[in-house]
């Protein structure tokens, strides 16, 4: 069988598989937690099984190749090309005779990889969490690599402002308009991501630039909060929030995530949380003071990984001993396999609107 045929069979099988799962999932109704919120988490959650990720990427690669009219005679040098025929054949081992991924078999194979510390026959919260987090980090790296590859025209493995925004004119750059998405706004974002001020974004810096909410660069995080505050600040004040602004714009988001994370545990009131965050007691929250609750306000991939972990644990842990046995995972195998949209998009874009 030719490689192309194999790809298209897998693609079709995968597509079918996800559509069936989506329908199946809509019909499912059990459990306690805020379910609607759970679905919101699922939309942004990392993909549990690296094999599914691989199949998805192969499929996307194939679509892109077809779009670009590249046929398979030309060796592919871009991302996805690492999959050899034998790996594709390997994928077949996990398909049922109906051409769907055998999720039972996959979970049996993955279980020992998750059950690591301690290796005790159970997957505890931290074990599940570190697995999912790894998937999120891997996805961040992947999309950053893809962006680097597509924008890096001179092949120096870093991105200049010009490479990133070739459409900006000298005049735009000179004028430095600071509105959202205008030249000055991009330049500021670029400069903050460029932590060594080299004028170029290397891989790490580009990742911060593209995903400020997942950044470890505190300046980047503060920039993001400043930017969001600017857009919600009712009085065009000094970029800080008073209590009413906090209550109106941020608190309910914070509340719903904490509620989700603690499965309906105690959530501090808006007043208490405000007082708690207002370290210098000036009755205003600065971007810096908001940093501690950032993962609740603007969750990135890493925050979603954590919420997804909570979701899976909550759904799967039938005997409520705070860990998953293989049996529990198999009883709930579908919850581990429904994070991919049928159209192959892995992200809903509400928090990435500026990109
Ligand atoms: C999936 O794999 C399991 C474990 O190898 C096997 O017992 C089962 O029959 C397979 N299911 C299907 C539908 O092929
Ligand atoms: C990119 O540059 C920053 C700042 O100099 C440095 O800390 C980081 O390690 C570099 N990353 C890579 C991938 O080279
Ligand atoms: Ca364990
Ligand atoms: Ca740099
Ligand atoms: Ca303050
Ligand atoms: Ca359990």
UniProtKB/TrEMBL annotation:
Provide this UniProt record's keywords sorted from A to Z: Calcium, Membrane, Metal-binding, Repeat, Transmembrane, Transmembrane helix
Sorted alphabetically, the Gene Ontology cellular component annotations on this record are: endoplasmic reticulum
Entry's InterPro entries?
Answer: EF-hand-dom_pair (IPR011992), EF_Hand_1_Ca_BS (IPR018247), EF_hand_dom (IPR002048)
**Domain (EF-hand) ranges:** 181-216, 265-300
Query: Which residue ranges traverse the bilayer?
Result: 6-26
Q: Which SUPFAM superfamilies match?
A: EF-hand
Look up the domain of life of the source.
Eukaryota
Q: Name one GO molecular function term.
A: calcium ion binding
Q: Name one Pfam family in it.
A: EF-hand_7
| Family annotation (PANTHER family) | 45 KDA CALCIUM-BINDING PROTEIN (PTHR10827:SF98), RETICULOCALBIN (PTHR10827)
Q: What is this protein called?
A: Reticulocalbin-2
- Name its species: Cicer arietinum (Chickpea)
């Amino acid at each position: 069988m030719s490689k192309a045929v194999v790809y298209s069979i897998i693609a079709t099988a995968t597509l079918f598989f996800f559509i069936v799962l989506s329908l199946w999932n809509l019909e499912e109704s059990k459990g306690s937690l805020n379910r609607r919120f759970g679905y919101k988490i699922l939309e942004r959650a990392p993909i549990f099984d690296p094999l599914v990720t691989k199949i998805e990427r192969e499929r996307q690669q194939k679509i892109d190749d077809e779009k670009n009219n590249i046929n398979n005679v030309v060796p592919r040098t871009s991302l996805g090309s690492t999959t050899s025929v034998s790996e594709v054949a390997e994928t077949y081992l996990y398909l049922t005779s109906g051409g769907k991924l055998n999720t039972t078999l996959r979970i049996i194979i993955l279980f020992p990889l998750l059950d690591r510390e301690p290796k005790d026959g159970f997957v505890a919260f931290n074990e599940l969490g570190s697995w999912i987090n790894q998937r999120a980090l891997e996805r961040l790296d992947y999309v950053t690599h893809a962006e680097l590859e597509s924008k890096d025209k001179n092949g120096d493995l870093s991105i200049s402002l010009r490479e990133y925004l070739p459409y900006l004119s000298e005049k735009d750059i000179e004028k430095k308009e600071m509105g959202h998405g205008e030249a000055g706004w991009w330049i500021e974002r670029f400069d903050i991501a460029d932590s060594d001020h080299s004028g170029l974004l290397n891989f790490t810096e580009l990742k911060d630039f593209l995903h400020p909410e997942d950044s470890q660069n505190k300046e980047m995080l503060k920039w993001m909060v400043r930017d969001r505050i600017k857009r919600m600040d009712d009085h065009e004040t000094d970029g800080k929030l008073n209590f009413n602004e906090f209550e109106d714009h941020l608190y309910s988001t914070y509340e719903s995530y904490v509620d989700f994370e603690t499965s309906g545990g105690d959530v501090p009131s808006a007043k208490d949380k405000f007082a708690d965050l207002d370290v210098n007691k000036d009755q205003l929250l600065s971007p810096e003071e908001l940093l501690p609750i950032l993962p609740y306000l603007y969750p990135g991939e890493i925050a979603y990984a954590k919420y997804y972990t909570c979701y899976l644990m909550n759904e799967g842990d039938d005997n409520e001993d705070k860990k998953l046995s293989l049996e529990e995972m198999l009883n709930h195998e579908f919850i581990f396999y429904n994070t991919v949209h049928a159209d192959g998009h892995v992200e809903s874009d509400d928090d990435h609107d500026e990109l």
